[in-house]
Design brief:
Elements lengths: L4 H33 L3 H20 L5 H17 L2
Length: about 80
């Protein structure tokens, strides 16, 4: 166990940030799954804007890597464009 006050506080802060980051990451993953499951193009286009925004925010906060966010957005855009 940590002996210094500052290290105890750092542990608390790290746990809080870890939970918050895990929540936002999981929410974004669920949104991506929901978008991939859609078959209606109009709904997919409207959801794509929010999902890409989520991914950009996660990349900006270093929760996911920026290349991963861009790869996901690219794959989702291809998926939407293939819809009839």
């Amino acid at each position: 166990m940590a002996n210094h006050k500052s290290s105890i506080k750092r542990i608390r802060q790290t746990q809080t940030k870890n939970l918050r980051n895990r929540y936002y990451g999981k929410t974004a993953r669920n949104a991506v799954r929901k978008l991939r499951a859609l078959t209606n193009k109009e709904e997919a286009v409207t959801l794509y804007a929010t999902v890409s925004s989520m991914l950009d925010k996660l990349a900006k906060k270093n929760i996911i890597h920026k290349n991963k966010a861009n790869n996901l957005k690219s794959k989702l855009a291809l998926h939407i464009n293939k819809m009839a």
